[in-house]
């Protein structure tokens, strides 16, 4: 029996990971801010799959929240075998439309929390000679796209670099880069999604399943859908200036009108 800790477990991609891992018989540590929702999720997963689901309420935009989760990951008596750093959010609007407080909050959740939690987990995993970390980035990591894209580019670079440094230790690290996924993400950010074509939407359960397969294959980067693999390949051929223009115009479409 192994244990997985998932941040942002109560909705969207995190909830899909929780369902998938619970169905596979893994015990879970569920992390988010909304305690009521966490408890309901833990009860449901326990009742349906017979696994143990621990609840850890933490705000990863706060030092105290990061420390709480890092302490759990470092608990040698109750080891965590798989960490999914998934919690994240979007800010509506382009550069200078977003307040500095919100920009900094994004860097705290997407970068600082990911660094500190990955490190806490990887240290304990390296001692045991096994373990895995999935850091949820985005295809936005590969296009010029303000603080969101920049924070996800950091996740990709950091994760692939750390994966290389820990090669041979038994600890696997992988950055996951989905395209648009139907979750609460866009609604929470107040972003309209009418302009996003139907074919661009991915299913969270399929994203989680592919990610776990790619981790098992030893990949350090997962782009979980052939459509986005093609798009990412094509994006490499487009000059960065043109790509930046397309990205900025798309941002305007589903940012403030
Ligand atoms: N949806 C997409 O199109 C898409 C595409 C590419 C990448 N991603 C990335 O995928 C990840 C998950 O996104 P999602 O679409 O599944 O979002 P979602 O449906 O909005 O779920 C976000 C989850 O994160 C938790 N969370 C948010 N802020 C938190 C904080 N400060 N501390 C702790 N937990 C927090 C939320 O619970 P509480 O509110 O209770 O804390 C919730 O469980 C994010 O990193 C996102 O950037 C999403």
From TrEMBL:
<dbReference type="Pfam" id="PF00106">
    <property type="entry name" value="adh_short"/>
</dbReference>
<keyword id="KW-0560">Oxidoreductase</keyword>
<dbReference type="InterPro" id="IPR036291">
    <property type="entry name" value="NAD(P)-bd_dom_sf"/>
</dbReference>
<comment type="similarity">
    <text>Belongs to the short-chain dehydrogenases/reductases (SDR) family.</text>
</comment>
<dbReference type="InterPro" id="IPR002347">
    <property type="entry name" value="SDR_fam"/>
</dbReference>
<dbReference type="GO" id="GO:0016020">
    <property type="term" value="C:membrane"/>
</dbReference>
<protein>
    <submittedName>
        <fullName>Short-chain dehydrogenase</fullName>
    </submittedName>
</protein>
<dbReference type="GO" id="GO:0016491">
    <property type="term" value="F:oxidoreductase activity"/>
</dbReference>
